[in-house]
């Protein structure tokens, strides 16, 4: 399982690179073949003295996800709406949405994604076509009651 929480208050938790780096670390901690994949990447980049590009990190994640394994892999991406939708081509949020689309398109039977977000229009437009079991909690009384208390 890998988990990532986007946080508008923490600049190290707002970009696709942060998400991928976190998932690589978490997935490699629970699997020797995945650890070996990350170790090869580390060695290829002068044992951390050089930084791989984001696309290289994404390729590493793809390789990890495709390791033959009968166990399910759960990736939980929380608070996607806190990933910036600022200027840039593509924006940080668009990069994450593109990554999520790519992960779904792998069609790996053991890969399960759970993405949470407020219903921002760009996120809904990107994720609704990909979702098998969308759940909307924004109109639920319990969820509405928690929002005012969170600000206290």
Could you tell me the strand content as a percent range? 5-15%
Total strands: the figure is 3
CATH architecture: 3-Layer(aba) Sandwich
CATH topology: Rossmann fold
Instruction: Output the number of helix runs.
Output: 6
Shape: globular
In the CATH hierarchy, what is the class?
Alpha Beta
Estimate the helix proportion, in percent.
40-55%
> What is the first-to-last residue Cα distance?
32 Å
How would a crystallographer describe the biggest sheet? 3 strands, parallel
What structural category characterises the helix and strand content?
mainly alpha
**Rg, nearest Å:** 17 Å
Major β-sheet strand ordering? 1-2-3
Uncertain runs are none
Which sequence of SSEs, written as H and E, runs from N to C?
Answer: EHHHEHEHH
The whole-number mean of residue pLDDT values reads 89
Number of domains: 1
């Amino acid at each position: 399982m890998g988990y990532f929480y986007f946080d508008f208050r923490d600049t190290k938790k707002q970009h696709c690179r942060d998400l991928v780096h976190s998932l690589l670390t978490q997935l490699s901690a629970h699997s020797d073949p995945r650890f070996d994949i990350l170790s090869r990447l580390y060695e290829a980049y002068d044992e951390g003295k050089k930084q791989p590009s984001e696309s290289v990190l994404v390729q590493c994640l793809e390789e990890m996800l495709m390791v033959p394994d009968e166990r399910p892999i759960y990736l939980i991406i929380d608070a996607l709406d806190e990933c910036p939708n600022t200027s840039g081509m593509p924006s940080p949020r668009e990069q994450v949405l593109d990554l999520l689309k790519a992960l779904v398109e792998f069609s790996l039977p053991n890969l399960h994604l759970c993405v949470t977000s407020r219903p921002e229009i760009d996120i809904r437009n990107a994720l609704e076509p990909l979702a098998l079991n969308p759940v909307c909690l924004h109109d639920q009384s319990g969820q509405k009651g928690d929002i005012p208390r969170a600000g206290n």
